[in-house]
Amino acid sequence: MTASGTSKNTYAYHYQVQVQLNVWNIEKSVFVLWNEKDIVVDYIWRDIQCFNKQVQSVKHFYVTGVLPELVGRWLCRKPVESSEGGGVRIPEAVPTVERSDGEGGRVWCYCEKPSYGDMIGCDGKNCKIQWFHMDCLMIRVPPKGNWYCPHYRKKPKNGGKFKSK
């Protein structure tokens, strides 16, 4: 609370309240503080801009932290030995599946962003993504030899095709 008795939008529950207001499409919430001598009632209004920033932040965390772990157990893996220049390549001009950022640029990786920083190419013949940001996969050192993305590693060894029963 400020000296004037209104709540700051930096208090511990601000982001939680903003998510609840926006998810449930409610315009305001009542925030009540009391003690033996006084009671303060404050209205917390829905802030769509604050909510949108939170959504972007959570999406970034999911794409760069949670998703690589779910798909390839990147945080639980043992580190890969490095080789000088091996494993890191510049993306080729045409990916197998063209994906665009809406401004004419191609996007890569699970994060679906343009090429930047160190990139690593999947050596799988039919990999749909082809290129990955090493930062997104939390790979610090380029691996030696062929490298296969988490999705491609899960494919069967019979040419990447699943057998039907």
CATH superfamily of the domain at 78-165: Zinc/RING finger domain, C3HC4 (zinc finger)
CATH-defined fold name of the domain at 78-165:
Herpes Virus-1
**Measured distance between first and last alpha carbons:** 64 Å
Biggest sheet strand line-up: 1-2
Structural class based on helices, strands and sheet pairing: alpha+beta
What oligomeric arrangement do these chains adopt?
A: single chain
> Helix coverage percent of residues?
10-25%
Summed over residues and divided by their number, the pLDDT gives a mean of: 75
The CATH architecture term of the domain at 78-165 is 2-Layer Sandwich
Strand coverage percent:
5-15%
- Shape summary: elongated
Order of helices and strands: HEEHEEH
CATH class of the domain at 78-165: Alpha Beta
Q: How many E strands?
A: 4
- Number of distinct helices: 3
Spans of at least 5 consecutive residues with low confidence: 78-97
Radius of gyration: 23 Å
Structure explained in plain terms:
This protein is of the alpha+beta class. It has a domain at 78-165: Herpes Virus-1 (2-Layer Sandwich). The protein has 3 helices and 4 strands. Strands 1-2 form a two-stranded antiparallel sheet. A hairpin with a 4-residue loop joins strand 1 (28-34) and strand 2. Helix 1 (14-23) packs across helix 2 (48-72). The radius of gyration is 23 Å and the shape is elongated.
